[in-house]
Design goal:
- With about 400 residues, this protein is of the alpha+beta class.
- The chain folds into three domains: about 170 residues, Beta Barrel (OB fold (Dihydrolipoamide Acetyltransferase, E2P)); about 120 residues, no CATH class; about 60 residues, no CATH class.
- The chain is about 15% helix and about 25% strand.
- Strand 5 and strand 6 form a beta hairpin.
- The protein starts with about 35 loop residues before the first helix and ends with a helix.
- The N terminus is likely disordered.
- The structure holds calcium ion (4 copies).
- The site of one calcium ion has 6 residues, from loops.
Length: about 400
């Protein structure tokens, strides 16, 4: 994904937030002043688009088109209908685009599993009812002073109204922009965050360099169903860095040399471009993050990346207390995780043994202790400790 770019300045009391002037435009679509207000909306959207210099002509077009929708120039916005995240995300289109792109929708929403301030604050919402696909979406807050972003906390269930669905660089976004008269409700607090989905590295393949076009491309968009969901890959090592549009990607390989791309740009514990755990050759028992698409064919980029969010997403084998080293302090985690059934199959436990009742441990809790990556934590995983630390 692109690095955050400088946004237009929205200082309190000076420049008004994007689209504020036309805030009633679409909401008035059924009122007598419909045409006038919609035209105002078109103008406002165009002004709004013009201020989004990072998005250029494309954003200007979609914002104006969104307002034009209410004039009947295109399919009508979904007014009043409440959509689930999976309904917005699900698609069979070859380019992976949402069928609701360009429309203003309401969304049942989901649990906040990620927050990223950047230059345009955003949430990542996941619906726990859809753990295997189409279950997550990113939401950007364009309304200064970003109250939705500020109010929503990890574990809150957030419901959204009058949000513009936009495909941007291959990722589906719900845009909270004043021109569409958006609102939100925090339905509940303290919901468990849905566990990341375990995926094989081969499921989320890295792009391949095309020397003819001098660009990087994935073969297809078959993994569209995972977009914006949190995923986990296991038993991976860093084999390349400084990749991608923003030179912030690194490449992981599994023992079978399947490869995937990762970035730390949302990682709250990163100290620079990368998290300090990341280095060439570094092996991780598991890496977890938000799965994001970045596609900009005009610049010859088309790839997916796992965006880590904190240190715990970079599970160094044996580092039970997630402090970056392996020592006697990590043993307590091993003891916590060693309960549970054994995994005897070659493919291991999926889901991992410790996540099953009655243990019910979070997926990430023991990944760093599963040193042989077979889905359980047992005495075979302890061998390295015994050798290394004399347990
Ligand atoms: Ca996509
Ligand atoms: Ca999508
Ligand atoms: Ca440690
Ligand atoms: Ca194991």
């Amino acid at each position: 994904m692109r690095k955050p770019k400088p946004s237009h300045t929205v200082a309190q009391g000076s420049v008004r937030p994007v689209g504020e002037q036309g805030s009633a435009a679409l909401g008035d679509a059924t009122l007598p002043h419909r045409s006038v207000s919609v035209l105002k909306g078109v103008a406002a959207a165009m002004r709004a688009g013009a201020r989004r210099e990072a998005r250029g002509r494309w954003a200007l077009g979609t914002a104006a088109v969104a307002a034009l929708l209410a004039l009947g120039a295109a399919p009508s916005p979904v007014v009043g209908q409440m959509l689930r995240i999976d309904q917005i995300q699900y698609t069979t289109a070859g380019d992976g685009g949402s069928p609701y792109a360009g429309q203003v929708v309401n969304c049942d929403g989901g649990v906040v599993v990620g927050k990223f301030a950047g230059t345009r604050p955003r949430l990542v919402l996941q619906d726990p009812g859809y753990p295997h696909g189409w279950g997550a979406i990113q939401v950007k807050d364009w309304v200064y002073p970003y109250q939705m972003y500020t109010d929503a906390q990890i574990g809150d269930w957030v419901k959204l109204y009058n949000m513009m669905v936009e495909e941007f660089r291959g990722t589906t976004l719900l845009q909270r922009q004043s021109v569409y008269n958006p609102s939100y409700t925090i339905v509940s607090h303290g919901n468990p965050t849905p566990p990341p989905k375990l995926v094989a590295v081969s499921t989320v393949p890295a792009p391949v360099y095309d020397p003819v076009r001098d660009g990087w491309f994935v073969a297809d968009h078959a993994v569209e169903y995972l977009e914006s969901m949190r995923v986990t890959v296991r038993d991976v090592s860093v084999v390349a860095i400084d990749l991608g549009k923003a030179y912030d990607n690194y490449e992981l390989t599994d023992p079978l040399e399947h490869r995937c791309w990762v970035s730390d740009y949302m990682n709250v514990d990163a100290t620079g471009v990368y998290h300090p755990f990341v280095a060439m050759g570094r092996h991780f028992c598991a890496v977890t993050g938000v799965f994001e698409q970045y596609t900009n064919l005009s610049e010859d980029w088309d790839y997916y990346q796992i965006i880590t969010q904190s240190s715990v997403d970079l599970a160094l084998c044996g580092d039970g207390d997630v402090d970056g080293d392996r020592d006697v302090d990590d043993w307590a985690r091993f003891v916590e995780c060693v309960t549970g059934p054994m995994c005897e199959g070659e493919a291991g436990c999926d889901p991992p043994a410790w996540t099953l009742p009655p243990w019910n441990r979070g997926l990430q809790d023991c990944l760093m202790m599963d040193r042989d990556a077979d889905g359980d934590v047992d005495l075979r995983d302890a061998a390295g400790y015994q050798r290394g630390f004399g347990f």
